[in-house]
Amino acid sequence: MRNSFFCIDAHTCGNPVRLVAGGGPLLPHAPISERREIFVRDHDRVRKALMFEPRGHDIMSGAIIYPAYREDCDFAVLFIEVSGCLPMCGAGTIGTVTAAIEEGLIKPREPGRVAIETPAGRVDVTYEEKAGYVESVRLHNVASYLHEADVDVDVPGMGRLRVDISYGGNYYAVIEPQDNWSGLDGMTASDIVGCSQKLRSALADICDPVHPDDPRIRGVHHAIWCDRPVNDTSDGRCAVFYGEKAIDRSPGGTGTSARMAQLYGKGRLTVGSRYRHESLIGTVFEGRVEAEARIGPYSGILPSIGGWARVIGHNTIFVDDRDPLAHGFQIR
């Protein structure tokens, strides 16, 4: 049997986003958080086929659009990537909105504004459109917070690191320069991947954060290595690690949200602050602390992230059961 998937390929500030516009599995009309569980249980082979080699690669990200269950949302999104079916993806949201608007997949109830039902909650997005093209997108992300500060962890080959655990739609280990890590200068992407893998493994034995409002969101699966910016107009620079060996080419939407929540929790940002966040390739997201928020017992923020994406092509992908590698592979 051969299945066909029609995809719109784009990138958000350098990071790939594959929007599945046709061929995604039909799912019951239910909250997207429940549909996510059904997808993971019954259809994860679709994610692997479209995100893993030979049709994808180590940093592949994607999304599938579904009708919204919530009446206050325009549509719902499942985020698929090499690391799994995520609760939220900022770069994925910016790329999905850009591709969906430009290609006519959705018609917002209010021009210039959409509300998206994600597994992490409702996400409001504004966008600027000119001559049929989306020039920029600002997503108003889910409530983000500093979960735990100053966690000491022994990392093989690096020694003891002090990290913060912060949530911006996914849980992140946030690392700043310190005695046993001098910063991003001189590190290759392979160095960052290796250090991140060791850090995540070490944290798994001592730290398992659970979201106060949704116990299905738990665990530190991402790391964000933070340093001084290269560009004088930026406030910080980062490398976001996810999956098995992926480094985000953008500054990371949930990563920038988690970074701002960490800085806010430590008194280094306030409501109204702007934070221009630079990626390893020099692209920038403009973050803003829009308001305070409560997440269970925690004090946090409502962040927004501004960025841009570009559509780079249409892609019809075949997944043929006769192919021994039909459902993808990863090289560890």
Automatic annotation (TrEMBL):
Record flagged with keyword Transmembrane helix: no
Reaction catalyzed: trans-4-hydroxy-L-proline = cis-4-hydroxy-D-proline
Native organism: Rhizobium aouanii
Enzyme class: isomerase
Protein name: 4-hydroxyproline epimerase
Database matches in Gene3D superfamilies: Diaminopimelate Epimerase, Chain A, domain 1
EC number: 5.1.1.8
Molecular-function GO terms, alphabetical: 4-hydroxyproline epimerase activity
Lineage, highest ranks first: Bacteria, Pseudomonadati, Pseudomonadota, Alphaproteobacteria, Hyphomicrobiales
